[in-house]
Write a structure and sequence with these properties.
With about 170 residues, the protein is an alpha+beta fold. It folds into 2 domains: about 40 residues, no CATH class; about 100 residues, no CATH class. About 20% of the residues lie in helices and about 15% in strands. The protein is built from 4 helices and 6 strands, in the order E-E-E-H-H-E-H-E-H-E. The strands form 2 sheets. Strands 3-6-4-5 form a 4-stranded antiparallel beta sheet, with helices on one face. It has a two-stranded antiparallel sheet with strand order 1-2. Helix 1 crosses helix 3. The longest helix has 12 residues. It starts with about 20 loop residues before the first strand and ends in a 7-residue tail after the last strand.
Length: about 170
């Protein structure tokens, strides 16, 4: 059996064995280690501040847009294909070329506050604009240079987009 020597300022234990007694010079004795150190002093705190959405101050990251669609019980991919047909586009590439989208990258975060509108309640061109935006977003970033990727995950996101050009660290 092997002994592990502990050297901490808060304990005076000389040796610890996991799973059995320590053999000291004067015979076997069992010692218990200080189980509260160092993990007992660990803390977890929730951060409740953000620089996103700040229009004034040293760091400016104003909200640009909120996007998200509620497809109800319909398949998001089938619904978006129907939107393309309704608006007269053959595919997402043709729609992207015709629709004016923001040209700058944005920082994204999930929008848990706002309830997204039903696709059926929006005009088709507004719903298609949001679908194109969602296809250009990841969960963290809007990039107008990337290809439009429509997946169930990307189309069902509810996001806030922020202009990150005023953020410099």
């Amino acid at each position: 059996m092997t002994a592990t020597v502990l050297a901490t300022t808060s304990t005076v234990w000389g040796a610890v064995v996991i799973g059995g007694p320590v053999l000291w010079n004067d015979g076997p004795r069992e010692r218990l280690a200080n189980s509260g150190s160092p993990m007992g002093r660990g803390r977890q705190e929730r951060i409740a501040a953000t620089v996103l959405g700040q229009d004034q101050g040293a760091v400016r990251c104003p909200r640009v847009l909120r996007i998200g669609l509620d497809f109800g019980r319909r398949s998001p991919l089938n619904c978006v294909r129907d939107l393309l047909k309704t608006c007269g586009f053959a595919d997402e590439h043709e729609a992207r070329a015709a629709v004016t989208l923001p040209g700058e990258s944005c920082i994204c975060r999930p929008d848990v506050v706002t309830r997204s509108p039903l696709v059926s309640s929006l005009p088709a061109n507004d719903a298609l604009f949001q679908a194109l935006m969602l296809g250009l977003c990841t969960a963290w970033c809007y990039d107008p240079r990337r290809p439009v990727l429509w997946t169930r995950a990307s189309l069902t996101r509810h996001l806030e987009l922020f202009d990150g050009r005023g953020f410099y660290v």
